[in-house]
């Protein structure tokens, strides 16, 4: 499988698409990935599939709109992750591609522990990640709101109902209003979300009231308004993704990363996970999540964060 001709690539593409279907990917996603990846096969022209030719193919997409480039990139990364899993004896093309064109939001899987093994889902990216990349850089509220769901696992209603006073002084913990009026403490391990929380709190210039306020600072913007904005980003990315899929993707990442069920249940406010205790020390949970995040995003290691408080939020 070292040399991939156009015909070979077509067969590989058929196998990849069949695998997507077996894994339950949505028909619209499968059709979009197949169409975008056919352009890669045409650009190969019977030559070997290498990182250099992949990056050259990406460079040829610069004439397209940012949303179209994001869609092509999402399809290519998913395919290369699948391809690398089929060719363990070769340098990973996805790793080489990331080295040539690094992205902050590309998941990085930790190395298997000594004496053990881990199973890596070659389709770990959710479709929503492509939509997140379509959010304009200046849309601070949208980046923060959807980031709270994708990176911290909040329910959309929980993110909407956050108040400024629910953020602790260092923006490292949130006091999240959950279902049934039950609040839970959520640790902000993600550096991007942490910085956006700090910046957003300063930008709105309030010490109380709704974090995502509408015209009335005491009332949040409507769910329908945020869902409509999410649908727009999804259309731009040419994927199919519901707002709740972002939270489910975070749950899948935590599970795949070996985070204890009790920590996951506390973080996401779940009552249906088989756990042995609900009293895991908060500091231990924070350290587990920090280690998990650093393994996935090594570029963040050593970057300054606000001090972590060992007591509750």
From TrEMBL:
Any keyword NAD?
no
Give the top-rank taxon of the lineage listed in the UniProt record for this protein. Answer: Bacteria
Give the start-end ranges of region Disordered: 94-124, 286-313
Specify whether Chaperone is a keyword of the entry: no
UniProtKB keywords: DNA integration, DNA recombination, DNA-binding
Where do Basic and acidic residues bias regions lie?
291-303
User: What processes in GO biological process is this protein linked to?
Assistant: DNA integration; DNA recombination
Q: Which Gene3D superfamilies match?
A: 1.10.150.130, Intergrase catalytic core
Limits of the Tyr recombinase domain: 117-294
Q: Mind telling me which InterPro entries this protein's record contains?
A: CB, DNA_brk_join_enz, Integrase-like_cat_sf, Integrase_catalytic, Integrase_recombinase_N, Integrase_SAM-like_N
Query: What GO MF annotations does this protein's record show?
Result: DNA binding
* CDD domains assigned to the protein according to its UniProt record, in alphabetical order: DNA_BRE_C
The Core-binding (CB) domain covers which part of the protein? Answer: 7-84
Could you tell me what this protein is called?
Site-specific integrase
């Amino acid at each position: 499988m070292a040399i991939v001709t156009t015909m070979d690539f077509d067969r590989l593409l058929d196998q990849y698409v069949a695998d997507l279907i077996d894994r339950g990917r949505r028909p619209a996603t499968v059709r979009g990935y197949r169409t975008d990846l056919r352009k890669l096969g045409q650009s190969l022209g019977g030559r070997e599939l290498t990182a250099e030719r992949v990056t050259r193919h990406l460079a040829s997409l610069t004439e397209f709109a940012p949303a179209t480039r994001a869609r092509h990139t999402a399809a290519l990364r998913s395919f290369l992750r699948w391809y690398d899993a089929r060719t363990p004896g070769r340098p990973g093309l996805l790793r080489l591609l990331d080295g040539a064109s690094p992205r902050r939001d590309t998941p990085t899987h930790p190395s298997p522990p000594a004496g053990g093994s881990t199973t890596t889902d070659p389709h770990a990216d959710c479709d929503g990640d492509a939509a997140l990349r379509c959010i304009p850089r200046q849309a601070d509220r949208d980046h923060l709101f959807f980031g709270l769901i994708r990176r911290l696992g909040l329910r959309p209603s929980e993110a909407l109902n956050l108040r400024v006073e629910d953020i602790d002084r260092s923006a490292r913990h949130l006091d999240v209003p959950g279902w049934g009026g039950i609040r839970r403490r959520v640790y902000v391990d993600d550096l991007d979300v942490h910085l956006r929380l700090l910046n957003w709190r300063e930008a709105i210039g309030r010490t109380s009231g709704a974090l995502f306020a509408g015209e009335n600072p005491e009332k949040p913007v409507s769910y329908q308004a945020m869902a409509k904005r999410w649908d727009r980003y999804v259309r731009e990315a040419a994927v199919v993704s519901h707002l709740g899929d972002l939270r489910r993707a975070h749950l899948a990442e935590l599970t795949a990363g070996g985070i204890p069920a009790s920590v996951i249940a506390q973080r996401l406010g779940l009552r249906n996970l088989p756990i042995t205790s609900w009293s895991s020390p908060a500091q231990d949970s924070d350290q587990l999540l920090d280690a998990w995040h650093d393994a996935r995003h090594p570029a963040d290691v050593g970057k300054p964060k606000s001090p972590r408080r060992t007591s509750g939020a």
